[in-house]
């Protein structure tokens, strides 16, 4: 079984912001698999088969900095090990539209990833990072909660498509194959 987690913030106010890149990716992945999300108290979730495996796809609704509390509930409910979890999130240190897949590691300063690490007690989960770039003239908190500029939209659309595809590659072909193809 695989757990695929997209990070973001709930609500229309945040729906198309940089910080919600993870939500965009898992929504696309779920739609491509014909899966429909159901809403629970702390998360949205859907599940089904993929390449002979069962997949669970979730979006924490606890806001970014508390994502780990919802992830912990789903890990416990489905008895998923961290090694069978893929977390999709935005990354300021990667140019807009680029992808980077990592097998495990630190939070890199990402508050949602840090919350997951704190709540599950492990760093051993796969990350699919979506580059959102950086604006040196804007405070980080404002930048990540801003919407993509018009000239960035084609890059983000392509990144979301490739990131959704990379999830399938990780599950079906392994992390190394996905890193070689998408990094």
Count the strands? 7
Give the rounded overall mean pLDDT: 97
User: How far from one another are the termini?
Assistant: 24 Å
Oligomeric grouping of the chains: single chain
Structural class: alpha/beta
Measured by DSSP, the beta-strand proportion falls in 15-25%
Architecture (CATH level 2) name: 3-Layer(aba) Sandwich
Low-confidence sequence ranges: none
The ordered H/E elements are EHEEEHEEHEHHH
Description:
The chain is an alpha/beta fold. The chain has a single domain, classed as Peptidyl-tRNA hydrolase (Rossmann fold, 3-Layer(aba) Sandwich). Helices cover 37% and strands 22% of the residues. The protein contains 6 helices and 7 strands. The protein has a 7-stranded mixed β-sheet, with helices on both faces. A hairpin with a 2-residue loop joins strand 3 and strand 4. Helix 5 runs antiparallel to helix 6. The longest helix is centred in the last third of the chain and has 21 residues. The chain is globular and about 45 Å long.
Structural topology:
Blueprint (H helix, E strand, L loop, with lengths): L1 E5 L14 H12 L5 E2 L3 E8 L2 E8 L6 H12 L6 E7 L7 E4 L8 H10 L5 E6 L8 H5 L8 H21 L1 H8 L1
Parallel strand pairs: 1-4, 1-5, 5-7
Antiparallel strand pairs: 2-3, 3-4, 6-7
Helix pairs in contact: 1-5, 2-3, 5-6
